[in-house]
């Protein structure tokens, strides 16, 4: 298990991309809209891990609600796992609250599922598994 990416919720994706291109001194290498989540993502490579900027594409998006409530900032930490189904099973048996019954298709060609922040000392945790 390793940190695949850190997700950051932003108000204006274009503005945030420009900022992070300066901050990280590198170009955003991929943009992808996840329709089911009403979110547009932008990725930056930082060594083995990535930064994922998340901008809402609709006022009803969970990201729009998050930004309205908490402001911009770190939204989740994503850990890449080899077998997401087995890992979710393990976490459920340890008493963690998994927020989706089944892993779903996320950005970056991955299956993703989230673990409730209340179980992780305030951090929303994403598990992801690359789809080959
Ligand atoms: Co993510």
What does this structure look like?
The protein has 132 residues and is an alpha+beta fold. It has one domain: 2,3-Dihydroxybiphenyl 1,2-Dioxygenase, domain 1, CATH 3.10.180. Helices cover 23% and strands 39% of the residues. It is built from three helices and eight strands; from the N terminus they run βαβββαβαβββ. It has helices at 13-24, 62-70, 84-93, and strands at residues 2-10, 30-34, 39-46, 49-56, 73-80, 104-105, 110-115, 125-130. An eight-stranded mixed beta sheet has the order 2-3-4-1-5-8-7-6. Strand 2 (30-34) and strand 3 form a beta hairpin. The longest helix is centred in the N-terminal third of the chain and has 12 residues, at 13-24. The chain is globular and about 40 Å long. The model has no long low-confidence stretch (mean pLDDT 96). Cobalt (II) ion binds at residues 5, 7, 52, 76, 78, 126.
